[in-house]
Structure formats: C-alpha cells, structure tokens
Amino acid sequence: MNHRIRALHTDTTITVYQAYAPELGVPAARTGRFPAAWKRDRMTWIKPSFLWMMYRCGWATKEGQQTVLALEITREGFDWALRHACLSHYVGGLHADHDAWKRELRRSPARVQWDPERDLHLNALPYRSLQLGLSGEASRSFADEWTVSITDVTDRAREIHGLVRNGDDEAAARLLPEERPYPAGDELLSHLRP
Fold it and tell me: Quick one: pLDDT band at residue 61, thresholds 50, 70, 90?
C-alpha cells in the first residue's frame, strides 16, 4: 500500500520523531517533558519515520534541528489525532469541493501530509510516509498528556550517518528502529488517503 503508517510501536504506544535546537531538545530529553519554552499554541509536526526525520533534519546538522528526539506517545492520543485530522492539501473526490476542504482544515486540530519515504541515503522511495501536524488542542495534549517518554537519539542518528558515509549500509540498517506497519485501519485513514 502506497500510503501506510510504519512505526516503532507497542500495544499502547507509538514512537514519533522531532528535531529541535539543543536548548529545547536537551532539557526535554533530560526531564521527559517539554519545557515551558515549548510553544504549545503553534503547529508541531511529528514523524513516525526515523529516516524521514533524518531527511528533514539532515542527520541532525540543520540549524535549529541538531537534537533529534524519539517521543513515545500513547496510541490512544495518536489515533485521536488521526481521527480528527484533515489532509494538508485538497484532493478532488475525497473532499466535496475546495471550500469544504478549507472549512475542514480550519476546524481540524491535526493535519496529515504524505511524503515519499526515504532510504539510508535519504533517496525517495516509491511509497509514502506520514507526517502529522498538531495544533491547538492536539498540540497541547501531545505535549502534556500523550507523551510517555522523550529520548535524545542524536548520537544514534550520527552513528548511523557515519556508517552510511563509510559505505557500511548493513551495519547502519541494523541500528535503525524496527518500524512495522501501524494497525490503523480504514476507520482511521480512509479520510486521509489521497
């Protein structure tokens, strides 16, 4: 299936990734909570795909994205966000019309974008990876209720990147998180698949 969520998950949690400047990411990982400086009122994007996060943050080298966090959140919260999400772009046939999509987007506390999944060399793969944008109620719940643990995985990201640069893809692949298809059926995704 072209649009499928693949993630590290347990019966009760799913791991997503974000990257921050060290002054925000390091305290979050140390305390396991987002600090007060983390803006709960703005849109925040979470990514279940480790390699898509590496593509986005340049293996933790981009300005303001040098600290990569693995956030274990409740599946209950993640599923709620999917249920209340809207696609970030208009799709004819899925939405009644452009105006209906705009109205839905304005009232949705979450939005979904499907981007090409990435391989170890950050090349696009022929299937899509989910990004989930959270705002308002969803953003606040993510920060203060859904988050079970926050782990700094920057060193792991740099180790994997070093192995890739040295041509040892096999060793690099062994260090990747085990991302399996996430059990999100049609009830959660039918309104989000273009």
Answer: very high
